């Protein structure tokens, strides 16, 4: 059975009528306008009393776009069959709720809790694999029910590339270190695939990488391993033996610069242990596994932060890993607010900000300066439809007496970018 290709369906179905959230946004046209020589330069939208810097790359990546199209097309194509997805399509509650309203059902929550037992599935059910992929264990459980996994497989090819490289490197004798959040679906899937071919361990950040590095250098007792990395490694992982040769890959939505830093860190650890002469034998070069979309969104946000501004607004799902990384980048420079949609902009004076570290919402008062033209930086995570970004922009414009029509400003920026 050939791997599912959503473009095969496009000839038969007009997705626009099924997915109003995802298409026809004027910001999408802006984003897709031909980039100038500087492909990271932000868009500038000047409305007079308020101006926006918009990241050159923001929002949906191709992997998410493909998975969404698979979901909508499948629901349309098989009105008489039950359509499931292994877990949430993407970390965006609006997208997931819209699909559920159209009949899609999730088999698991984003945290891995089973919502529908595997045994309830039948061979004629349609089960879509999301962009994050699926663990081998889930795949086996579905196959046992006679479910066809290949036909509706929307696993992103960049995620599959990580699995492919993990296998290749494992066969060469490297241990795989996955930079990711242990409970994230993609990290669980990568761990599951990687451990078939290599000892594999998950580190969530540089602090954990350093704890592991200190054990490798004998600066911290190996006894700490069991406590710090309990359950975050392949079965039988032996830190005494399995950390002689390492390769770092990532959950593709992690901060790419942090993954690169972690890889560089293990390189210095290995140089200290084994010397520089044979370092490539001890640390593999895995930069080719980083997802281009995550890198682009992060690089474009870093570039956006060079613009003078009063505040930044980052839009994305509350549980979106890549969105929280964009928030982290912006916070280093200026007041930053993490919102899910225009609904979180309560008024000119109040905004509902999501504190992703504390996992709680908080009302922020007077988030907009009142004594001068306001300059706002805007970007969004890989699971946020452009139409939501546009609604946020429109909502903010309501608070100002504009000197230029919004469409006119955006269209002139499209012309400038072309
Ligand atoms: S962020 Fe990258 S790896 Fe993840 S779905 Fe998007 S394109 Fe694929």
Name the descriptors.
418 residues, alpha/beta, Rossmann fold, Cobalt-precorrin-4 Transmethylase, domain 1, 3 domains, 14% strand, disordered N terminus, binds iron/sulfur cluster
Concise account of the structure shown:
The longest helix is centred in the middle third of the chain and has 19 residues, at 256-274. The strands form four sheets. This protein has a five-stranded mixed sheet, sandwiched between helices. It has a three-stranded parallel sheet with strand order 4-3-5, covered by helices on one side. Strands 7-6-8 form a three-stranded parallel sheet, with helices on both faces. It has three domains: 1-24 and 62-156, Rossmann fold (3-Layer(aba) Sandwich); 33-61 and 293-417, Cobalt-precorrin-4 Transmethylase, domain 1, CATH 3.40.1010; 157-290, Cobalt-precorrin-4 Transmethylase, domain 1 (3-Layer(aba) Sandwich), CATH 3.40.1010.
The name of the CATH superfamily of the largest domain reads 4-hydroxy-3-methylbut-2-enyl diphosphate reductase, catalytic domain
The number of helices is 15
Mean pLDDT: 88
In the sheet with the most strands, the strands line up as: 1-2-13-9-10
User: What pattern of helices and strands is seen along the backbone?
Assistant: HHEEHEHEEHHEHEHHEHHHEHEEEEHH
Shape: globular
CATH level 1 name of the largest domain: Alpha Beta
The major β-sheet equals:
5 strands, mixed
Q: Unreliable runs, pLDDT <50, ≥5 residues?
A: 1-19
Looking at the overall shape, the CATH architecture of the largest domain is: 3-Layer(aba) Sandwich
Percent of residues in beta strands: 5-15%
Q: What is the number of strand segments?
A: 13
Rg over C-alpha atoms, rounded to the nearest angstrom: 23 Å
Q: How many domain units?
A: 3
Structural class: alpha/beta
Task: Give the CATH topology of the largest domain.
Answer: Cobalt-precorrin-4 Transmethylase, domain 1
Tell me the span between the first and last alpha carbons. Answer: 41 Å
Which small molecules are bound?
iron/sulfur cluster
Query: Helical content, roughly?
Result: 25-40%
């Amino acid at each position: 059975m050939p791997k599912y290709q959503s473009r095969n369906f496009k000839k038969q179905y007009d997705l626009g009528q099924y997915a109003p959230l995802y298409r026809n946004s004027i910001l999408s046209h802006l984003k897709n306008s031909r980039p100038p020589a500087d492909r990271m330069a932000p868009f500038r939208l000047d409305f007079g009393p308020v101006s926006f810097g918009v990241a050159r790359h923001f929002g949906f990546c191709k992997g998410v776009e493909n998975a969404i199209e698979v979901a909508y097309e499948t629901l349309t194509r098989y009105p008489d069959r039950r359509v499931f997805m292994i877990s949430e399509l993407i970390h965006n509650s609006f997208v997931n709720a819209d699909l559920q309203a159209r009949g899609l059902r999730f088999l698991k929550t984003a945290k891995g809790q089973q919502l529908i037992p595997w045994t309830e599935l039948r061979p004629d059910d349609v089960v879509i694999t999301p962009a994050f992929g699926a663990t081998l264990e889930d795949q086996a459980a579905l196959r046992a029910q006679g479910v066809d996994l290949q036909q509706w497989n929307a696993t992103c090819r960049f995620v599959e590339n990580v699995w492919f490289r993990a296998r290749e490197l494992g066969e060469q004798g490297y241990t795989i270190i996955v930079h990711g959040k242990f409970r994230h679906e993609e990290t669980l899937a990568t761990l599951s695939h990687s451990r078939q071919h290599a000892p594999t361990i998950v580190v969530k950040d540089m602090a954990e990488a350093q704890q592991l590095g200190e054990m490798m250098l004998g600066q911290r007792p190996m006894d700490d391993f069991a406590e710090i990395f309990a359950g975050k490694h392949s079965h039988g992982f032996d830190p005494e033996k399995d950390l002689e040769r390492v390769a770092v890959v990532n959950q593709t939505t992690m901060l790419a610069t942090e993954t690169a830093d972690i890889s560089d860190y293990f390189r210095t650890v290995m140089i200290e242990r084994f010397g520089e002469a044979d370092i490539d034998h001890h640390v593999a070069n895995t930069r080719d596994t980083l997802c281009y979309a995550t890198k682009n969104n992060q690089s474009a946000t870093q570039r956006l932060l060079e613009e003078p501004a009063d505040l930044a607004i980052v839009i994305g799902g509350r549980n979106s890993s890549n969105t929280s990384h964009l928030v982290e980048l912006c916070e280093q420079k200026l007041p930053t607010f993490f919102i899910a949609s225009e609904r979180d902009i309560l008024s000119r004076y109040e905004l509902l900000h999501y504190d992703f570290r504390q996992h709680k919402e908080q009302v922020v008062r007077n988030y907009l300066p009142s004594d001068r033209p306001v300059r706002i930086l805007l970007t969004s995570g890989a699971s946020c439809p452009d139409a939501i970004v546009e609604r946020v922009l429109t909502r903010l414009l309501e608070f100002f007496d504009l000197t230029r029509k919004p469409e006119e400003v955006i269209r002139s920026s499209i012309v400038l970018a072309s």
